[in-house]
Amino acid sequence: MQSNSLSLPAPRVAGDGGPDAERHDPVLSVRGLRTDFVTAVGTVHAVRDVSFDLRKGQRLAIVGESGSGKSAMAMSLMGLVPPPGHVAGGSVKLNGTEIVGLDDAGISKVRGKDIGLVFQDPMAALDPLKTIGSQFVETIRVHQDVSVKAARKMAADLLGEVGVNDAARRLSDYPHQYSGGMRQRVLIAMAIANDPSVVVADEPTTALDVTTQAQVLDLLAKICDERGNALVLITHNLGIVEELCDSVNVMYAGRFVECTSTEALFASPGHPYSKALLDCVIDPATARRGALPAIPGSPPDLSVDEPGCPFAPRCPIGRDQERCAVERPQPRTLSNGAVVRCHFAYDTQGETA
Amino acid sequence: MTSTLLKRLGVALATIFGASIFTFVLLRKVPGDPARAIAGDTATEETVAALRQSMGLDDNLFVQYGNYMGSLLRGDFGFSYSTGNSVGTLLGQRLPATLELGLLSVIIAIVAAVLAASFAVYSRRRWPDQAVRAASSLAMGSPPFWIALLALMVFSIQLGIFPGPEGRLSPGMLKPPNITGMFTVDSLLAGQWGTFANAAWHLILPAAIVTLGPFAFLSRLYRNQLRGTLRETFVAVSRSHGLRRLPVYNRHVAPHGLLSLLPAASLLFADLLAGSLLVEKVFGWPGIGSMTADAIIQKDFAVVQAVLLLAAVLYVVVSLLADLLMTAADPRTRVGAR
Which of the residues A166, B61, B90, B285 has an alpha carbon 20 to 30 A from that of B291? Predict the structure, then answer.
C-alpha cells in the first residue's frame, strides 16, 4: 500500500470566502485513509489510501459506482465503520484534531458536533419507538447543556427551518407518521443541530421519491450556505454534482482516480472512468430509445490488490495497454488542474481519445 | 379498536371451544377403560358395565360432550374418581402451589435472561456471548426432571443445603393463613417470618430448575433481538449524533428487545401455570403438574380434561393480553395515534 497523498486542485471557496488563514486551514483533512473489512473469505480493502482536504464552506462530491468504497469512506470519517470493518490506517483530522484511534468517549464528543452525517435511508434512520421530539431533544442535549424545554424549542425551530409545517406539534409524532422526504428533512435538521463544521451526506436522496429528491438536495445546499458548513456529498448521480458541488473526487476501487473542480470535470473529464461515468448520464432531451449507456464489466474484487490500474480491464484505452496491466498509475496533475491516476488520461480540452 | 378487540375475543373463544372438543375426543379414544380402572382388576364384568353406565360412558360422544359442557358452564368441572373430590376443589387446592412456583420461575427467567443477554451483547469481548449461548444450549438440552433428581442428590442429600422432596413446607410446619394460597406471600402478609423463610427455602430449588427452559429460550431470543437491533440504521444514526454506547443501548436497543420478549414470556408463563409435570412430581410439589401426572396414570378423565382445558384457556387469555399490551406499547400499532 502506498502512502503518497494526492495533492488537490486549486482552492475554490464557495460563498464570499474568508480570511486567508481560514482558506488554507482545512476543516477536514484526510491523509492515507485505509478501511478494511475482515471476512472469513479474506480481507476486503474498501478504502485504499484516500487523501483530501475540505475547506470551510466547500462542497465536495464523491462519486463512483456501488462498491467503490464511498460509503465505507463516509463511515470512516465518522469513526462508524460497522464490524467486521475497521480503519486500518491513515489520518482524519477535524478542525486540526485527529479522530482516528479515539476511544468511544473521545469520538462521541466529535460526532454530531464537528462532523454530522446524513444517512442514505431515512425510513430506517429513526427509532420507531420514540417520538421525533424525544430523539431530537436527545441529539441536542448530547452536546449542549440546555434544559429539555429549551432543547424542544430549538428542535421545533430547526424543524421549521427544514420545512416541516406545524413543527412544534409534530415533535410529538412518531417516525411512521412522517413521509420519507419529511424524515430526511428531520434527519438533516438533527445532523446540523449541533452546528458541525462538516456535513457528510451519504446518498441522501437515493431512497427517496424522485419528486422529493430535488427538494431535499436544495434544502441541504441552502442549509450549508446559510450556516457555512462544508459538505461532502456522496452520490452516484452526476446531475446532482453539477448543481450542488464545486469540486468532485471520482472514486474507483477504493481510491480517488480523479480530483477536480466540477466545471473541469464536466468540460473535460481526465480519467477514462470519469468520462465513462459522464457518458452514462442520460439527458432526457437528447436520449434515444434503445440500450441505456453503461460501463462494460463490473468493479473489481476489493479483497485483492493487483498491480496495475484497477480500471484497466474495463477501460477503452487501458484494455490493450501492457503498462496499465502491470504498473499502478501515480497521481499526476493535468493542464486544467485535475489530479488523476491514469497513464493515458485525456489531457488538454478533452477529446484526445 | 372495539371491533379489533371483539374479533380477538371471538378468535379466543373459538380456540377454547376447539381445545375442549379436542381434549374430550382424544381422552375418550385413548386405549384403557376408566370404569375398569376405578372398579379394580377383581371386579366382575357386570360391576364394570354398571359403572360405565352410571358414568355415562355408554352414551354416544355427542351426548357425553353435551353433558360435559353443560356442567362446565354451571361451574362443575366433574368428579375425580381417583381422589374422591370434585375437580373444582382439587384445582382450588393445587393451583396456588403451581402459581407460586410458576410465577417465581418466570420472573427469574426473565430477569436472568435479560441480564445475561445484555451483558453478552454489550460486552466487546466474545466470551460472555459464548458463555451465554453455551449455558442456554445446556439448559435447553437437558431434561428438567433429570436435573431435578441431580439437584436433589447434590444439594439436598449430599450437601444438605436445601430440603428434600417434601413439598412446600417442612413437615410439622403450619400453613400460613389462606389469602392468596401462595405460602411465601401469605406468610409475609401475616408477618410469619419463620414460615416465609421455610416456604422460600422449599421454593428455591424447584423454581431454579423450572426456570432453566424458559431462561434458555428467552436469553437466546433476547440476545438475537438485541443483535438484530444493533445493526439497525437508527442505532448508527444516534451514534453519529454523538451518543455514547450505553445511552444508545439503553434508549434505542433494549426497548426493542424487551418488546419482543413480551409475547414469548407471556406464553411461557401460561405454560408454567399449567404445571411442570415431572419437576413437581420429583419435588413432591402439590401443584397442578403432579396432580395431572397422577390423574393420567389413574385414567382420571375429569381431572386431565379440566387441566388441559385450563391450559388452553390460560394460553388464549395470556396471549390475548400480551397482544393488547404489545399493541399499546408499540407506537406503530397503537390505535388512536394520528
Answer: B61
